Amino acid sequence: MSNRANRNKLVSYLLMFICVVVFLFPVYWIAVKAFNGPTGIMSYPPELIPKTINFENFFYAEKTYRISTLMINTIYVSSLSLLAACVSSMFVAYGFARMRFPFKKTLFAIVLSSMMLPWDITVIPQFIIFSKLKMTNSYYPLILPLCFGVPLYIFLLRQFIMSIPYELDEAALIDGCGRFGIFARIITPLMKPGITLVIVYQFLLSWNDFLNPLVYLNSNAKYTMSLGIYNMNSGIYGVDWAGIMAGGFVAIIIPVVVFAFSQKHLIEGIAMSGLKG
Fold first, then answer.
1. Which residues pair with 238 in a beta bridge?
2. What are phi and psi of 22, to 5 degrees?
3. Which pLDDT score is estimated for 276?
4. Which of 43, 112, 165, 196 could staple 265 via S-S, CB 3.0–4.6 A?
5. Coil, strand, or helix at residue 50?
6. pLDDT at 234 > cutoff 80
7. CA dihedral for 112, 206, 193, 264, sign (positive or negative)
8. Which helix (H) or strand (E) holds 55?
9. Half-sphere exposure of 117 toward its Cβ, with a 13 Å CA cutoff?
């Protein structure tokens, strides 16, 4: 029995190692080619380990595509997006979890059902609205829709709030605290795992968003990182591998750092939200 258990454990570790290699190798390859210099990108045979560290690709990408501007634009959009999505979803979730009003369950069901609507269905009417408001080629279409709450975040945060004993609210009401005071002083501090989950998820989602910037932005000065890297693929002389590798490496730095430092909070947030298996 012990030999069989050891074999099963060995197979599990082997499968885990294969999955890690499959998922991390593209990231490693981007890093190698980014620091390989323009001549090392197409070298044959390919160098799995760069012989020298060369920053020429980064200087070229900055001079040609202004990747620092792309990163600043992406940080700006991602930061405002997560702020809008988090704050609005917190208020809506608190209303569904604690308030009493007519058709509460029906409205909550409608909010959840909206998660089933694919992006393809909503993008055309949304684009028409922002075109009428003359907000295209700006960051408003990327941020304003999030100011009205995100169904997934509303559901997650509602789960957190409902796990908090209502006796805390009653005690605060007896002491003369209003609903907003309860939300700000009692509920919000106890929701830190859920808020962290929403912040990290929305930041990564906005950082990697490609379709929305592609639809609404048409000025190079306002491009985000994903859209800027895409344009490196459509140059006059074909695919600009030097710019793509340097831009791709810069693009993955912040998401990797954010995920590395927030992994513990993400796992805790998913477990406490009731989504664990």
1. 235
2. -60, -40
3. 42
4. 196
5. coil
6. no
7. positive
8. none
9. 13
Average pLDDT over residues 19-42: 81
Q: Name residues whose C-beta falls within 8 Å of residue 245's C-beta, 6 or more positions apart in sequence.
A: 30, 33, 34, 36, 41, 57
Kind and range of the H or E run holding 37: helix 37-40
> What whole-number distance in Å separates Cα of residue 177 and Cα of residue 274?
29
The average pLDDT across 201-219 equals: 90
- Whole-prediction pTM value? 0.83
Portion of the chain with pLDDT greater than 90, in percent: 22
Query: Average pLDDT for residues 59-64, to the nearest whole number?
Result: 86
Q: Read off the tokens for 108.
A: 């909550």
Is-contact 142 81, C-beta < 8 A? yes
Q: For the domain 67-272, what is the CATH superfamily, name and number?
A: MetI-like (1.10.3720.10)
Q: Angle at the Cα of 16 (from 10 to 19), degrees rounded to 5?
A: 145
List all residues 6 or more positions away from 79 whose beta carbon is below 8 Å from its beta carbon.
203
Give the residue among 231, 226, 220, 276 at the shortest CA–CA distance from 248.
Answer: 226
Q: Give the pLDDT of residue 272.
A: 61
Work out the end-to-end distance of the chain between its first and last CA atoms, rounded to an integer number of angstroms: 28
Q: Residue 13 — very low, low, confident or very high, per pLDDT cuts 50/70/90?
A: confident
pLDDT tier at 2, thresholds 50, 70, 90: low
pLDDT for residue 268: 65
Q: What CA–CA distance (Å, rounded) separates 4 from 216?
A: 57
Mean pLDDT over all residues of the chain?
84
Spatial distance between the Cα atoms of 215 and 217, rounded to a whole number of angstroms = 6
Query: Residue 96 and residue 91: Cα distance in Å, rounded?
Result: 9
Q: How far apart are CA 36 and CA 54, in angstroms?
A: 6
